[in-house]
Amino acid sequence: MIMNLLDATVVNIAAQAIRADLGGSHASVQWIAAACTLALAGGLLTGGRLGDIFGRKVLLLVGAAGFVAASLACAAAWSPDTLIAARTVQGLFAALMIPQAFGLVRTSSRPRRSGRRVRHVGPRDRPVGPGASIVAGLLINADLFALGWRLVFLINAPIGAFTGYRRRHVKQPWRR
After folding, report:
1. Which residues contact 73 (CB under 8 A, 6 or more apart)?
2. CB–CB of 10/136 below 8 Å?
3. Greatest C-alpha distance within the chain
4. I need a labelling partner for 141 at 20 to 30 A (CA). Which of 15, 17, 113, 159 fits?
5. Quick check: helix, strand or coil at residue 23?
6. CB crowding 106-136: b at 16 or more within 10 Å, else e
7. Cα dist. 24→32, 76, 83, 91 in Å?
8. CA distances from 166 to 57, 65, 161, 163, 169 (A)
9. What is the pLDDT of residues 106-164, one digit of tens each?
10. How far apart are CA 7 and CA 23, in angstroms?
11. Number of other CB atoms surrounding residue 29 within 10 Å
């Protein structure tokens, strides 16, 4: 969830740096920002249904791996068109990932508390926007390894690697 929320914010912060580096029109900058969201919105129901069919954990990991791979493709983009295409793929993998997160939280919580747990997973009451803005600004201005705006996409690699981390099974006494 944090990767998707972070990406939606940092792209808007990095938009001018992206345009300065890759060129393109103002419309292409808007498409770079909107491509992921449109693909996510279009594939969200299908992603949820695929999680029901093939299993939520599997689809969460596939979605996270694909999202990270698409983020790496975004960082390697050489034109606005390739960045728009990579952002579209990123949105499609987010559509696989996000419903699984909500579904896993719902099924791993006690029935009486599942609604409250799902509410806490979402962006409400979270400082994601300001925090992501600060992170994006620092990454662009720091220009580590002369990567500039590309770091805002590369930040997903360590977050995605953490997603694949598997901890021991926690017993759930309310399940039989």
Report:
1. 82, 86, 89
2. yes
3. 58
4. 159
5. coil
6. eeebeeeeeeeeeeeeeeeeeebeeebeebb
7. 10, 16, 11, 21
8. 11, 14, 11, 8, 9
9. 666 566 665 555 555 555 545 555 666 677 677 777 777 777 788 888 888 887 777 66
10. 20
11. 21
Token pair in block for residue 88: 């579209």
Give me the DSSP letters along 54-80.
H-HHHHHHHHHHHHHHHHHHHHT--SH
* Distance of alpha carbon 175 from alpha carbon 108, whole angstroms: 9
Write out pLDDT tens, residues 67-116: 999 999 999 999 999 999 999 999 999 999 888 877 777 666 566 665 55
